[in-house]
Amino acid sequence: MVNLDRILSVVSELRRRLLRILYVLAPIFGFLVTFQFRSFPFSVAGLRLTGAYPFPNVFDNVTAQVFRTLTVWMLPPHVQLLNVGVGDSVVVQMEIAALLTLIFGMPWIVHEVGAFLVPALRTKERELFRRIGIPATLLFALGTGLGFVYWTPLTFNLLFRYVSAMGLAPVLGVQDFIAFALLYSFAFGVVFELPVFIYALTRLGVVKSSFWRKHWRGAILGSLIFGMVITPDNSGITMLLIATPMIALYFGGAWFAARSEHQDESVRRRAVGA
User: Fold this and answer.
1) Per-residue pLDDT tens listing for the chain (274 residues)
2) Which of 100, 110, 186, 266 has the fewest CB atoms in 10 Å of its CB?
3) 248: alpha, beta or left, given left = phi > 0 and alpha = psi -120 to 50?
4) How much is the pTM?
5) Read out DSSP for 182-214?
């Protein structure tokens, strides 16, 4: 009976945390699909600046504005996007809104997940969670940002060079474009979490740092498999573009894990000697 009460208490707390997350994410999502940003000029101390204000517009909303920005930024200028399916444009707006909602709401999501998990953690685990929380968030943002700004445009330009070399028409379905752009960029955010994952496991004593050094070949193979699975196309180019930084991050995480383990051992030896 005590165990049942404890389980019900945990389920109730989980439900409360999920609702708190939903209360924040739902308005963000609603704003993105029902408002647009309109620009206006203004002057400050003689400087001409441009501001923006939200204005209701269900069709040409924020997600549509973001989509147009992505097409200009990521695709070569000669590529033509096609709306193949009747509802492709609607699906694309929903997908962009979902990703932006996740990005903007990530700090709140991390806060609520941490608040749910911390009572069940030991003191050492709580300290580690607080220590890696900010780096993990920053690395995810950095990876996703690099994916959007650099890696995804580079990949599109590289792939469409093959299209031009074969004399094919450079056209792309709008849903294929946005699925590739979002998933590929998001994958880099996930990949950049690898050093934090390696460091956390070693810091908690679950995995020795020697394990990471010993199984580096398996890590390279796993990176290639991850790159093959996560990329929505079947070319080896995109697999290598995502697997290469993942391998580098693996070795970086293994180095930090070994350094942390060495420092802990030095502290224990000094404590015993004292």
Assistant:
1) 556 777 777 788 888 889 999 999 999 999 999 999 998 888 887 788 888 889 999 999 999 999 999 999 889 888 899 888 888 899 999 999 998 898 888 878 877 887 777 777 677 777 777 777 778 888 888 888 888 888 888 888 888 888 888 888 888 889 889 888 888 888 888 888 888 888 888 887 778 888 888 888 888 898 888 878 776 566 677 778 888 888 998 898 888 888 877 776 776 677 666 5
2) 266
3) alpha
4) 0.76
5) HHHHHHHHHHTTHHHHHHHHHHTTSS-HHHHHH
